[in-house]
UniProtKB/TrEMBL annotation:
Annotated residues for binding of FAD: G14, G15, T16, A17, V185, L332, I345
EC supergroup of this enzyme: oxidoreductase
EC nos: 1.14.19.9
Protein name: Tryptophan halogenase
Catalytic residue positions: K78
Top-level taxon in the UniProt lineage: Bacteria
Pfam families with a match to the protein in the record: Trp_halogenase
């Protein structure tokens, strides 16, 4: 097979996935000719409105002005996620972005805190997380504006309007030469070797390319229907398979965090933007009907409805080979993990970033695809295990849904992580993992898992009065956060969007 440099790429499907792919390729490989095929007649899900800190890295990689992007997409800031009623009804905990604690020694801060707790210290772990303290007080300043301060270790992400993000990135990509073709794909023509040769549109037009990126969502027109790519179903561990989404008017200023509140057969989200709030109810259809889920959601939301409730069916899992021959599946076409930790957009970015690292020739070398697939499936699996962690540690027994999770046997890799953490508070971090020790520590603690002991390294640290040092650090952080502007004031001063039309 001829091994010539790739020259033409066709992206099938728009939305957030398609236009992130188009923007990244156009920016990083302007030598490639990119055509994106989508149809205004096929709606996008458009409810993925919460991001994680790597999304800020994506904006910087693209050279996008962050403030302009925030204003254009009516975005607000996100310091983490507040979880309510997951361990027991009436309990809540916070998963912060960024650091917990300030460096006192070379020991991990969590281990020092465990050492102090073993001696009777009562200060809460989240009192040392700058993102958590700012979120609790409804305040915000980005860490890059306060690097040498007590909040310098905080990280942040964004709450965004997904459709405005796609529109912003479409304009970005088209300015850099990406060609958009309006049309509905009705057929896919394969070459004798099983590679995709061209796609056929409903009006008879054909689009040929050397490489195709499938961003057609759950339909997976290329990766699924044309190539028959096998799918690893994770419904055994992720029981939720449906969602109801609705938008409401804001009631008060937006909070700088996402709310994830457990419900009888799932959980609901609240994502506040500048001019409206995104709401949703993720649930298991085996334990609840659409009508029941919708009624629960509408009873919980605040503010007048901006849209009518929209049901979304989904299947959790990942394709065994997201890159198969000359087709790369990205976004929902590659796989899906329920949106509890807002990882969908990150996996799109990650998928294209990895692909460009392994950019093939026209031969689409199998070795490159194999390594890509290994890395991406590993990423999906890591995130799956982190999501299951939120469920499998529950002590709730008030509904069949929560009893099923309480009694569930977690995936083998997750079971090992939990056991290691229970033993000495350790986290087996792998190479380039998304969720680092702080994230695992926050959720483990929030779900009631306290290690049997602290690690011996914490005992070797010469700190004469550890509780006193911790109290100083806690009060210093609290006093500084009190000087930070409110989240609403910061938005109004720096990144306010134009009034909605």
């Amino acid at each position: 097979m001829t091994r010539a440099p790739l020259k033409t790429v066709c992206i099938v499907g728009g939305g957030t996935a398609g236009w992130i792919a188009a923007a990244l390729i156009a920016h990083l490989h302007p030598d490639l000719s990119v055509e994106l095929v989508e149809s205004d007649d096929i709606g996008t899900i458009g409810v993925g409105e919460s991001t994680i800190p790597p999304f800020i890295q994506l904006l910087h990689l693209l050279g996008v002005n962050e403030s302009e992007f925030i204003a254009e997409c009516q975005a607000s800031y996100k310091l983490g996620i507040e979880f309510r009623d997951w361990h027991h009804v009436g309990e809540r905990y916070f998963h912060p972005f960024g650091a917990i604690g300030t460096p006192m020694t070379h020991a991990d801060f969590y281990q020092l805190w465990l050492r102090a707790v073993a001696d009777g210290y009562t200060g809460a772990l989240m009192d040392f997380a700058p993102a958590a303290v700012m979120a609790r007080e409804g305040r915000f300043t980005p860490a890059f504006m306060a690097l040498r301060t007590p909040i310098g270790g905080a990280a942040y992400a964004l709450h965004v309007d997904a459709k405005r993000v796609a529109r912003f990135l479409r304009h970005y990509a088209e300015e850099r030469g990406v060609v958009r073709t309006e049309g509905i794909v009705t057929d896919v023509a394969l070459r004798p070797d099983g590679f995709v040769d061209r796609i056929v549109l409903s009006d008879g037009r054909q689009v040929a390319a050397e490489f195709f990126i499938d961003c057609s969502g759950f339909r997976a027109i290329l990766a699924g229907k044309a190539l028959g790519g096998a799918f690893d179903d994770w419904g055994e561990w992720l029981l939720c398979d449906r969602a109801i989404a609705v938008q409401t008017e804001n009631v008060g200023p937006p909070s700088p965090y996402t709310l994830a509140e457990a419900q009888p057969a799932g959980w609901r989200w609240r994502i506040p933007l500048q001019h409206r709030t995104g709401n949703g109810h993720v649930f298991s259809s085996r334990h609840m009907s659409d009508d029941e889920a919708t009624a629960i959601l509408l009873d919980k939301v605040e503010g007048e409805l901006v849209t009518q409730p929209m049901p979304v069916a989904f299947r959790t899992g990942v394709r065994f080979r997201p890159w198969d021959r000359n087709v790369l599946a990205v976004g929902l076409a590659a796989g899906f993990i329920e949106p509890l930790e807002s990882t969908a957009i990150h996996l799109i970015y990650r998928g294209i970033e990895y692909f460009l690292r392994f950019l093939p020739t026209t031969a689409c070398e199998r070795e490159l695809a194999d390594e890509y697939n290994r890395r991406m499936v590993t990423d999906y699996t890591e995130i799956r295990d982190f999501i299951v962690l939120h469920y499998c540690l529950t002590q709730r027994d008030d509904t069949p849904f929560w009893r099923a999770y309480r009694d569930m046997t977690p995936p083998e890799g997750l079971a090992r992580r939990i056991a290691l953490f229970r033993a000495a508070g350790l986290i087996p971090e792998g190479v380039d993992e998304l969720f680092r020790a702080v994230s695992w520590q926050s959720v483990m603690e929030g779900m009631g898992v306290r290690p049997a002991r602290h690690h011996a390294s914490a005992d070797r640290m010469a700190i004469d009065d550890l509780p006193r040092e911790l109290d100083i650090a806690r009060s210093t952080l609290s006093r500084y956060v009190a000087t930070v502007p409110s989240h609403g004031d910061f938005i109004a001063r720096h990144v306010a969007a134009a009034p909605p039309r």
